[in-house]
Write a structure and sequence with these properties.
Layout lengths: L6 E5 L4 H12 L3 E6 L2 H12 L6 E4 L5 H15 L4 E4 L14 H30 L2 E5 L14 H22 L4 E7 L5 H4 L8 H5 L10 H12 L10 E4 L1 H11 L8 H5 L2 H14 L23 E5 L4 H12 L3 E6 L2 H12 L6 E4 L5 H15 L4 E4 L14 H30 L2 E5 L14 H22 L4 E7 L6 H4 L7 H6 L9 H12 L10 E4 L7
Parallel strand pairs: 1-2, 1-4, 2-3, 4-5, 5-6, 6-7, 8-9, 8-11, 9-10, 11-12, 12-13, 13-14
Helix pairs in contact: 1-2, 1-8, 3-4, 4-5, 12-13, 12-19, 14-15, 15-16
Bound molecules: NADP nicotinamide-adenine-dinucleotide phosphate.
NADP nicotinamide-adenine-dinucleotide phosphate (NAP) binds next to helix 12 and helix 17.
Protein name: Putative short-chain type dehydrogenase/reductase y4vI
InterPro entries: KR_dom, NAD(P)-bd_dom_sf, Sc_DH/Rdtase_CS, SDR_fam
Pfam families: adh_short_C2
């Protein structure tokens, strides 16, 4: 993820997420432009960045002021002659109710900084980003799709919802120029933003209790995702929103429905929920509540999987095979699962070349006894399980008016959904022991018909897998076990073969995407490793889309 000589503007980089991102980019060799209003804080960030070898450009600017915003772009181009990456991160949160006299003043201020500044800067930066085929990341919030637990945050929520949809539109427009635009929506992150809200009796330790994972994120975690998305590893990702706490949003809403939440209700009222969960714990599993650490030694958080045990179903080819190979390269003990022995042998040889002998289990995962064999043999061989990747899947045409519709429907659902459900059920006791995680391979077909009615059985199976994953993520959060979903768009794999010969070619598939390309399986494997690693310690219940912008079309 080297950013050597890339020019990166990070707005709002005097503190919090922006500061962490600026420092992380500088560490990877970028020429960083630090932007903010507080000179003292910017000086500190600049010093940190400079310690990695390059002097950043520090611009004092109020991004909601058009003159300042333009000066920021002009000074960047004057100094570095180009722009590769724009991180629109500057933002404020203010509490004010729609019924209060001061509401419009605060609404305008929040909208001007959180939305209008990002829009104007994007407008100014676009010609430069087109030249470098660069990319934009807009830092939004889970408040963009929830009420953030407080009616007093309406302006903030509105600004972030608008930023999300603006980003999708711009992603579509700029995809024609090879420029990617993505969104990161964090849940609670320990920065100055909440401290600045002056919530009575607010304290981060109490606040932690309001989240399913019993932790808030550190700014460095968001910076990690920013760097991943800004890098070439994410070359197939545009128009996507990456949520750091989708579950948190869901959880908070659940708990604030009946509450008079004049102020930050989430701080006080969510405490009822963990006690309900505690009862469930005792009765159903009898395990001890676990907490994920808040502070990670970030210098040490790598995507290493040394001695981790990872099951990847459907790893005889395509995405599963690439993921198994990538994990083996990072030191994992991989369990290769599929039906085609010849293909599995090839994947096995590739994995073994990195030094560890994989376990190969021939199994049709849609048969309960064979699924059970996968888990049993894994535990027998390695004694533990750290990550389960439910990736096996088939796509097939199915016509609701045809006589054999139900037969095909059942077959698709059994492989794409039921097998993942049963394997999850079997794997849970082992994953609780290791505080492991699960990734389910879904598809953009889980949230779109893709305009193909004959694909509806496949779409149904993937929609079910998405929502099953959210439910399990909520249940397992109390044990520190994360569950996430990756939804690819078109990826060049053998899946076409399972659909018969009469499907569209990969070239035609590429035309259905905004970036006019299909992904290679290795790109999805990269995202799998990120999500399965400790870099994603704050991510659970999220659906990560990597589709070359198909859904924004
Ligand atoms: N390629 C795309 O465009 C795309 C887009 C979105 C989502 N996806 C999803 O990505 C996942 C992987 O697909 P892929 O594109 O990599 O296709 P692929 O190359 O055809 O791989 C599918 C894998 O699933 C395995 N599998 C299927 N049925 C199985 C069963 N009953 N038991 C055990 N293994 C089974 C296959 O192994 P055996 O044949 O050896 O059993 C194979 O390893 C699927 O869930 C798919 O829905 C793919």
């Amino acid at each position: 993820m080297s950013f050597n000589n890339k020019v990166v503007i990070v707005t709002g980089s005097s503190s919090g997420i922006g500061a962490a991102a600026a420092i992380a980019f500088a560490k990877e060799g970028a020429n960083v432009v630090i932007v903010g209003r507080n000179e003292e804080k910017m000086k500190n960030v600049s010093k940190k960045c400079e310690s990695f070898g390059k002097k950043p450009l520090v611009i004092k600017a109020d991004v909601s002021n058009d003159v300042d915003a333009k000066r920021m772009i002009d000074e960047t181009i004057n100094k570095f002659a180009k722009l590769d990456i724009l991180i629109n991160n500057a933002g404020i949160a203010e509490q004010d109710e729609i019924t209060s006299d001061s509401f419009m003043i605060s609404f305008d201020r929040v909208m001007n900084i959180n939305l209008r500044a990002a829009v104007y800067i994007t407008h100014l930066a676009a010609p430069h980003l087109i030249k470098t085929k660069g990319n934009i990341i807009n830092i939004s919030s889970i408040a963009g799709s929830t009420n953030a637990g407080s009616t007093a945050l309406t302006a903030y929520c509105t600004s972030k919802a608008a930023l999300n949809h603006f980003s999708r539109g711009v992603a579509l427009k700029l995809s024609g120029h090879g420029v990617r635009v993505n969104i990161i929506s964090p849940g609670p992150v320990r920065t100055d933003i909440l401290d600045n809200l002056s919530i009575p009796n607010f304290n981060w330790d109490t606040f932690k209790e309001t989240t399913p994972l019993k932790r808030y994120s550190e700014p460095e975690e968001i910076a990690d995702l920013i760097l991943f998305l800004a890098s070439d590893r994410a070359r197939g990702i545009t128009g996507s929103e990456f949520i750091f706490g989708e579950l948190y949003a869901w959880y908070t809403q659940f708990n604030t429905n009946s509450v008079d939440n004049n102020k930050m209700a989430l701080v006080t009222n969510v405490r009822a929920r963990p006690s309900t969960l505690a009862l469930g714990r005792v009765i159903f599993i009898g395990s001890v509540v676990t907490q994920l650490p808040n502070r990670l030694d970030h210098g040490g958080v790598k995507m290493s999987f040394d001695n981790k045990v990872v099951i990847i179903t459907g790893s005889s080819s395509g995405i599963g095979a690439s993921t198994a190979i990538a994990l083996a390269k990072e030191g994992a003990h991989v369990v290769i699962v599929g039906r085609n022995e010849k293909k599995m042998k090839k994947v096995n040889e590739k994995c073994e070349s990195y030094g560890k002998k994989p376990l190969v289990v021939k199994a049709d995962v849609s048969k309960d006894e064979e699924a059970k064999k996968v888990i049993d043999e894994t535990i027998k061989t390695f004694g533990k399980l750290d990550v389960l990747i439910n990736n096996a899947g088939v796509a097939d045409w199915n016509d609701i008016t045809s006589d054999d519709f139900m037969k095909k429907f059942d077959a698709i659902m059994n492989i794409n959904l039921r097998a993942a459900v049963y394997l999850t059920h079997l794997a849970i006791p082992h994953l609780i022991k290791t505080k492991g995680n699960i990734i389910n391979t879904s598809s953009i077909a889980g949230s779109s018909t893709l305009g193909m009615s004959l694909l509806s059985s496949y779409c149904t199976s993937k929609a079910a897998l998405n929502h099953f994953s959210r439910g399990v993520a909520l249940k397992l959060a109390e044990y520190g076990v994360r569950v996430n979903v990756i939804s690819p768009g078109p990826v060049r794999t053998d899946i076409a073969e399972s659909m018969g010969a009469d499907i569209m070619t990969w070239d035609t598939a590429a035309q259905t995407t905004a970036l006019k390309r299909v992904s290679e399986p290795e790109e999805i494997a990269d995202l799998m490793l990120f999500l399965a690693s400790d870099k994603a310690i704050g991510i659970t219940g999220s659906v990560f889309i990597s589709d070359n912008g198909s859904l924004v079309k």
